[in-house]
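A quick aside before the break. I want you to see a complete sequence-to-structure record at least once, exactly as it would be stored in a machine-readable document. Don't worry about memorizing anything.
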Amino acid sequence: MSLVIDEDKCARCGVCEPECPNEAIFQTEDAYVIDPELCSECVRFGDPKCVAVCPSDGVHKAKESLLKTCMGLFG
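That is the input. The structure line, written in tokens, reads:
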């Protein structure tokens, strides 16, 4: 499983990008994104580093984000 950045909560401050030991976080034209192929959820470090530094609580496990999207669509 990977982490994702919630675009609605992301402040686009960029503090998460340099914290990622796998270089899985990158900036697009509109937002910061986590590459699921590179994200390991920092299992070797204990807790995900991007989650720890995010000031807006905008990083979540992909499963939680998908649930939120589905609930938004179906109600």
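Two observations worth writing down. The first strand starts at residue 3 and ends at 5. The helical segments are 49-53, 62-74. We'll return to this after the break.
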